[in-house]
């Protein structure tokens, strides 16, 4: 089944270029375009996209506000930010608003496609600069370190696989457990580490060097 994508950008040249390129990709369908966040919110219900590819700096309503409102009204819709900005004042608010992906407009085309596909599957994919800023933000905000021993043996195994970038399906196959069981363990890990998503859990584990090989 094709991933349905809504393009949101105030530059028509960008919209046309994205539409032309993404329409050549297998299993990706461009269902519509919007030139600002407010317009995007108006058409989401009718177009029912799986992923919204969102610019940040737009008139009427910017991408951060649009992402926040979109996630409140349509939590199942995934937002991938595509922007020219990689500074803390843009990255952190966008991720806090609920964006699952963050890429810069000079991204390799194939990587953008990969980001969209991963987003549709519920996996976060960030530009390295965005990941670095998120790590810095977490380092500053995380005042205490959750001991590794608070996790069960299986939760540790699942978390280690998460740090390797494995999907629930891949973890299920590697650990010989069902995907439903994996989801339960992931939920428990996020709760115990007091983080919001898999990416933050992975960064937290790596920051504390929990799975570094000797």
UniProtKB/TrEMBL annotation:
One of its GO terms (cellular component) is cytoplasm. It comes from the Bacteria. It is found in: Cytoplasm. The keyword DNA-binding applies. InterPro entries: CheY-like_superfamily, NreC/VraR/RcsB-like_REC, Sig_transdc_resp-reg_C-effctor, Sig_transdc_resp-reg_receiver, Tscrpt_reg_LuxR_C, WalR-like. The modification 4-aspartylphosphate is found at residue 55. GO terms for biological process: phosphorelay signal transduction system; regulation of DNA-templated transcription. This is Response regulator transcription factor. It comes from Halobacillus salinus.
């Amino acid at each position: 089944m094709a991933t349905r994508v809504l393009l949101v950008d105030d530059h028509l040249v960008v919209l046309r270029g994205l539409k032309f390129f993404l329409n050549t990709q297998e299993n990706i369908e461009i269902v519509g375009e919007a030139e600002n966040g407010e317009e995007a919110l108006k058409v989401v219900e009718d177009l029912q996209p799986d992923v919204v590819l969102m610019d940040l700096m737009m008139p009427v309503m910017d991408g951060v506000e649009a992402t926040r409102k979109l996630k409140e009204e349509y939590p199942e819709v995934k937002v991938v930010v595509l922007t020219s900005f990689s500074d803390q004042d843009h990255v952190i608010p966008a991720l806090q608003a609920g964006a699952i992906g963050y890429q810069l407009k000079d991204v390799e085309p194939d990587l953008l496609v990969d980001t969209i596909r991963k987003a549709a599957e519920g996996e976060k994919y960030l530009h390295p600069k965005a990941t670095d800023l998120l790590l810095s933000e977490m380092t500053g905000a995380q005042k205490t370190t959750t001991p590794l021993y608070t996790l069960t043996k299986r939760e540790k195994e699942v978390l280690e696989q998460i740090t390797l970038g494995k999907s629930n399906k891949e973890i299920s196959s590697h650990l010989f457990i069902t995907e439903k069981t994996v989801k339960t363990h992931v939920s428990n890990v996020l709760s115990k580490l007091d983080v919001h998503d898999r990416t933050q859990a992975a960064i937290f584990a790596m920051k504390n060097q929990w799975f570094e090989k000797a």
